[in-house]
Specification:
Elements (H helix, E strand, L loop, with lengths): L14 E5 L3 E6 L6 E7 L7 E5 L8 E3 L5 E2 L6 E3 L5 E3 L2 H10 L4 E5 L12 H10 L1 E7 L1 E5 L3 E4 L5 E5 L5 E7 L7 E7 L4 H5 L6 E3 H9 L12 E4 L2 E2 L10 H14 L6 E2 L1 E5 L3 H12 L5 E5 L5 E2 L6 H8 L1
Parallel strand pairs: 4-9, 11-19, 14-20, 16-17
Antiparallel strand pairs: 1-10, 2-3, 3-9, 4-5, 6-7, 7-8, 11-21, 12-13, 13-20, 14-15, 17-18, 21-22
Helix pairs in contact: 1-5, 5-6
This protein binds zinc ion (ZN).
Zinc ion binds next to helix 1 and helix 5.
Length: 320
Amino acid sequence: MPDTLAFNQFVDQPFQTTVRGQVTFDGIGLHSGRFVELSICPAPANTGIKFRRVDIDAKLQTVEAHAKYAEQARLCTRIVNGDGIGLETIEHMMAAFAGVGLDNSVVEINAPEAPILDGSSQPVLDAINAVGLELLPARRKHIIVTKPVMVSLDDGAWARLDPCEHLEINIEIAFDDAAIGNQTLTYRHSDGSFAAELASARTFCQLRDVERMKNAGLALGGSLDNAVVVNDGKILNDGGLRMEREFVRHKALDCLGDLLLLGMPVKAKMTAHRPGHALSTKLVQTLLNDPSAFKVVEAGTTQSRSDSFVLPELAAAATA
Ligand SMILES: [Zn+2]
């Protein structure tokens, strides 16, 4: 196992990772508009990503970032544990975790909503980068999609997963506002690709949606500081876009984050037409509900595994 790796070398590693130390930041929640503090803490192999709501009773506070606890919410990704304790707007943080190759962490948060920050994954990526990742003595497991899975929603949006030896995301969006219009993107996930192609792409909305959401008591923390806002073919933010096709890049970022709800990295080709969180949550849940459509394989082996634990002797071999 290599001793030290550069920040952008953890996605393609065969070993699991965690953060080298606690990563702490704060910001406001998009929907609540309230101030939120958050710490991304180290965790042992096979923990996965778990959130701890430190603002409530210790017995109830853990919410696992897994598809079985995800709701098919339209505006954000929301997870709820068996006691009804939930956490929402986790998608940009999850995208940063997938993007950098972080497998295991307990994320402590003092509110029911993650901070929106600048509307992208860049601040989380930078904060993790400042502390760094380390390899753990356990092999990474991947979900390998073995046959096509397809889902759709009533509004015509659809998504599918097809077998592929690496993770690839193909996105198509279509908006009536000419500032967004129709955009497509093919993203291939590998070391460094997330930082270079997706991480800084911001969430976006149309001005009329902002007004509608605020009237409904939503997006109270939303502003031009944390979203690209378009109206009648114009981008209202000073400075315009950060990169070409920022809109479809953000949608790919959202999909990457939602795919991590599978509980481990996935190897598949995802194709999505007009994706959103309800669609991608439905896609990962549909996959997990069909055991004939995937297998779990440890990196560096060809054998498939049905349990979720690394055998002690394998862990010992991994450290040798
Ligand atoms: Zn988003």
